[in-house]
Specification:
The complex is a heterodimer. Chain A has twelve helices and twelve strands. Chain A is an alpha/beta fold. In chain A, helix 1 runs parallel beside helix 11 and helix 10 packs across helix 11. Chain A is globular and about 60 Å long. By secondary structure, chain B is α/β, with parallel strands linked by helices. Chain B has a single domain, classed as Rossmann fold (3-Layer(aba) Sandwich), CATH 3.40.50.360. In chain B, strands 1, 2, 3, 4, 5, 6 and 7 form a seven-stranded mixed β-sheet that branches. In chain B, helix 1 links the parallel strand 1 and strand 2. Classes of the chains: A alpha/beta, B alpha/beta. The interface between A and B is medium-sized, with 32 and 17 residues.
Chain lengths: 362, 204
């Protein structure tokens, strides 16, 4: 099982000091966080993609390539890549380049983006969100799998004999996850292709995530990619830890109370009971996270949101130390012990190359 | 057949005249449906009890606590009786918030009886210029008679009070006729029956 972190890339004032980092500081902090994640033994670092303030990650492959050059082991990914407003031709090119530069140490997660005004800036309409995600992704797949693509669709200029370069590393396209909070169509899309399905998980009750994941698993089996429990599932999570549980609650409360997504709404106590947010000791985080498996089944990737709501870099790095040293090693061991042998790991470049080779030989 | 009537009432005081009117409408609807040989189950949703969850839903995007069950009740119900106090010339904010967070289409095609209360009958047209368009937007089938209860209508035996009782009976009869004429079909759960991908891919 893979463990890692995902970042939204928000520039948010620290509510305890009133200080807002500059974009430059936030971008550099993102690099420091990713390097730390690699250093403490996490498997995945994923960045969002946004084209509006207060967010900085408008050019994710630039950032991911820069991180890749300074890390050894960690898989670089996205959370998410905007398949609706980004030209699939540019996604094919950018991420194939990243795949070569990282020697396959990357994958990506498709998402739609839920900010209406962003769509027209890229010549699109949010009301077409689902059809855009479906058509654009169908094209992206062909660009990575076919040398010369003839294509005509509803949302972009037709292509005649177009070859996307560079071709994927070792002839194997990057693995793709599809992220969605509440659209059954996206679970259906992931299942149809046998791609991974990632549930954001952190802002809504677990019961909702369970419904989405069950749908994806059932349809994954329906489309013949394996049994339902072999489908590739990822989950978000959100934690804040201190050795002493009460210290964690005291320190995190002002960040929670003012957080952009849920601030000024439910209390920290209500939200932690209603959603997977866990604020407490590393042991509490371990127990809560192990509990996710009870409603989604054995899954392949767990990403935590650690660097949002104005938390200072120093605090985030301390959190990553706790995550890497005290939480993930235990989770790794416990999840592995519970996983039946027929449930696969998340695909990596190496495993996809091996599978492709095996298929050629057979 | 058993028909479920969800009664959404947005009164704030206890006891509230809004709840009183809601109960009268529910009882009258019950009687009228029994004349159609229908069994009736009345589910009352007091929005005051859901006020915190409603605000949280606006901010977090999901229904917490009892609100989730309340929204499911409305979705499942064969008909809705919606009663609000009139505040500043329209439905109350709490009433509107509830109908802001109901799942899209959960009222589509559903028979709805609208009613309101206020201190004076001068607010009565708020039913027609505020509530009726709201439920038209939600694609509900609103019965022709909307019931307004002013303070003066309650507890007296003069002509106005008699006319409130008549309006309650007439509106309830209209609602019962609509409900009894329909087959009970529950909403389609997109998680149970997703649109097949080939269909999504072909853009149909």
């Amino acid at each position: 099982m893979q463990f890692g972190i995902f970042t939204v890339g928000d520039v948010t004032a620290d509510p305890t000091t009133g200080t807002t980092p500059t974009e430059h500081e936030r971008i550099k902090a993102t690099i420091a966080i990713a390097k730390k994640a690699d250093e403490v033994g996490l498997d995945v670092f994923a960045t969002g993609q946004h084209h509006n303030p207060p967010f900085i990650p408008s050019a994710p492959t630039t950032t991911l390539a820069y991180i890749a050059a300074q890390t050894e082991r960690i898989i670089l990914s996205t959370s998410t890549t905007l398949i609706t407003t980004t030209d699939p031709v540019r996604i094919a090119e950018d991420y194939a380049t990243l795949q070569h530069l990282t020697d396959g140490r990357m994958d990506l997660m498709m998402g739609r983006g839920n900010t209406g005004p962003v769509y027209p800036w890229f010549g699109k309409d949010i009301r077409d969100g689902i059809p855009l995600a479906i058509e654009n992704y169908a094209l992206l797949r062909r660009l990575w799998r076919e040398e010369a693509v003839n294509w005509e669709g509803k949302y972009r200029t037709p292509l005649q004999g177009f070859t996307s370069t560079p071709r994927p590393l070792d002839g194997v396209p990057p693995f793709v996850w599809h992220g969605s909070i509440r659209s059954p169509e996206i679970a259906e899309q992931a299942a149809y292709y046998g791609d991974g399905f990632f549930s954001n998980h952190i802002f809504w009750p677990g019961s909702h995530t369970a419904k989405m994941v069950q749908l994806y698993r059932r349809r994954f089996e329906h489309y013949g990619h394996g049994s339902a429990d072999q489908a590739i599932v990822g989950l978000g999570g959100q934690v804040f830890m201190r050795k002493n549980s009460q210290d964690a609650v005291r320190e995190f409360r002002p960040y929670f109370d003012n957080a952009p997504v849920y601030g000024h709404g439910p209390s920290l106590e209500e939200f932690t009971s209603q959603t997977p947010l866990t604020v407490g000791s590393p042991q509490e985080v371990i127990e809560r996270t192990l509990g996710f498996r009870e409603y989604v089944g054995d899954y392949q990737r767990q990403l935590f949101l650690m660097d949002h709501a104005g938390l200072p870099l120093k605090t985030v790095l301390e959190q990553l130390d706790l995550l890497g040293e005290e939480v993930v090693p235990v989770l790794r061991k416990e999840f592995e012990a519970m996983r039946p042998s027929h449930v696969p790991d998340a695909p990596t470049h190496a495993s996809l190359v091996a599978a492709a080779t095996a298929e050629e030989l057979s | 057949m058993t028909r479920t009537i969800a009664v959404v009432t947005a009164g704030l005081s206890q006891p509230s005249s809004t709840r009183l009117l809601a109960d009268q409408l529910a009882a009258a609807t019950d009687r009228a449906l029994r004349l159609h040989d229908e069994r009736v189950e009345i589910e009352v949703l007091e929005l005051r009890d859901l006020a915190h969850d409603l605000t949280n839903n606006l901010l977090t995007g999901f229904p917490s606590g009892d609100l989730e069950a309340a929204l499911a009740t409305v979705q499942r119900a064969d008909a809705v009786i919606a009663v609000t106090p009139i505040f500043s010339a329209s439905y109350s904010g709490l009433f509107k918030t509830f109908f802001d967070v109901v799942e899209a289409d959960s009222l589509a095609g559903k028979p709805v009886l609208i009613a309101a209360t206020a201190g004076t009958a001068r607010h009565s047209l708020a039913l027609e210029f505020a509530l009726r368009p709201l439920f038209a937007y939600l694609k509900a089938v609103v019965v022709p008679t909307a019931v307004f209860g002013a303070t003066e209508d309650f507890g007296s035996t003069d002509a106005t009070s008699a006319s409130l009782a008549e309006r309650v009976e007439r509106a309830a009869r209209e609602l019962a006729d609509l409900v009894a004429g329909r087959s009970a079909t529950g909403p389609v759960d997109p998680f149970d029956s997703p649109v097949p991908f080939e269909q999504l891919l072909s853009g149909r």
